[in-house]
Specification:
366 residues, alpha+beta, 12 helices, Serine Threonine Protein Phosphatase 5, Tetratricopeptide repeat, globular
């Protein structure tokens, strides 16, 4: 009984900071806990350099040498990938719309759907949906509380202006965000996964509290999906809007054409026509890998008819390519055409029997 009384007293102390809180009171208290409205408004830009690892957590003995870069600038700009690296494997950002730049094959795609949602959600300044929610069109609802890491936390549902939802957990003692839950695809063809990200090690920068470690876990399996640790934080060091747009690099005719094909993705007839014209005009140019890439991007965006038209032409023009057949099979799979997907994966395995992804694709259809 004494232990129960102690626990009850402890919980009473934790909740005393905001007794019987209304949502507005909680948000105001959270803002104050971060450092106050004045300090928050003085932040114009934030640059984070840190260590990122997926899947799984960062090893406890890992050397924390920064390799990951993320920047934000008011009102809505975001950039992932150090702009000093002119030819990265992948860079992405939000400059009013979501984009991804791939160093190979050297093209930029403006994303929609789940890919765009992930980018624009990450562009939220301070990554805090509780701040300035009314102006952002975010609807909040207080749903009681539950324990996070053995500590009581307020449970707040946030419905963003694009219709997506997440659950935000506000520690009752510190009034800082300690966790978020959401359902999202982990990759282009995966099913949505319910995950929880926990934030820890808050420290002040320019008078504003910011978390230093974020670890995302698959709630169903318990597997750690990724972890990010901030090593260096720079405040108000960026002012050039151009930093948040795709890199403006010289392009080859093939790279320009691939971007144009992607821009036509809503019109299968135009895609097929443009493909044939370019191939006839450049018969010696190897377009296979570039078309496989753009076809994959079309599938990601949900433009399945155009993707199938394009990848079908690619497989016809490169009949000895296992990857061309695999790309077509993947598009058929996304379109729900199991019969043609099976044929394409089988052709890929006939060309290259050890093609693991084609085997996995074929097995998934059984």
């Amino acid at each position: 009984m004494r232990l129960i009384a102690v626990v009850f007293f402890f919980l009473t102390i934790l909740t005393a900071a905001v007794p019987d809180s209304s949502l507005d009171q909680l948000i105001a208290a959270h803002e104050a806990a971060l450092g106050g409205k004045g300090a928050i408004q003085k932040l114009h830009s934030i640059v984070i350099r840190g260590v990122y690892h997926e899947p799984g957590p960062i090893a406890d003995n890992a050397a924390l040498i920064p390799h990951a870069y993320q920047a934000w600038m008011r009102p809505y700009f975001e950039h992932i990938g150090d702009p000093a690296d002119q030819h990265p494997n992948l860079r992405e950002g939000f400059d009013g719309s979501s984009w991804e730049y791939y160093g190979d094959p050297g093209v930029t795609v403006r994303t929609v759907g789940a890919a765009a949602a992930a980018t624009r959600h990450g562009a939220e300044f301070l990554q805090d949906s509780l701040l300035d929610s009314a102006n952002k069109g975010t609807r909040l609802a207080l749903e009681g509380w539950e324990e996070i890491a053995n500590n009581p936390a307020w449970r707040i549902r946030a419905r963003l202006i694009d219709g997506s939802e997440k659950i935000i957990f506000l520690d009752k003692r510190t009034l800082l965000i300690v966790a978020e839950r959401k359902s999202a695809q982990l990759h282009a063809f995966g099913k949505p996964v319910l995950s929880e990200t926990r934030f820890s090690e808050y420290k002040p920068f320019a008078g504003v509290m910011m978390w230093q470690t974020a670890r995302e876990t698959d709630i169903k399996s318990g597997d750690v999906l990724n972890e990010f640790r901030r090593v260096k934080v720079e405040v108000n060091t960026v002012s050039d809007v151009a930093e948040f747009s795709p890199p403006n690099l010289p392009q080859t005719p093939l790279q320009r054409w691939l971007e144009l094909l992607y821009a036509e993705r809503a019109d299968p007839v135009s895609v097929r026509y443009s493909y044939r014209l370019f191939r006839e005009a450049n018969p010696a140019l190897d377009t296979r890998a570039g078309i496989e890439f753009i076809g994959y991007q079309m599938v990601k965006m949900g433009d399945l008819k155009s993707a199938i038209e394009l990848l079908k032409a690619n497989a016809t023009d490169y009949p000895a390519s296992a990857s061309a057949q695999f790309g077509l099979g993947r598009a058929y799979t996304a379109a729900g055409d199991a019969e043609n997907a099976r044929k394409s994966f089988s052709r890929a395995l006939t060309i290259y029997p050890d093609f693991k992804k084609a085997t996995e694709g074929l097995n998934a259809l059984r």
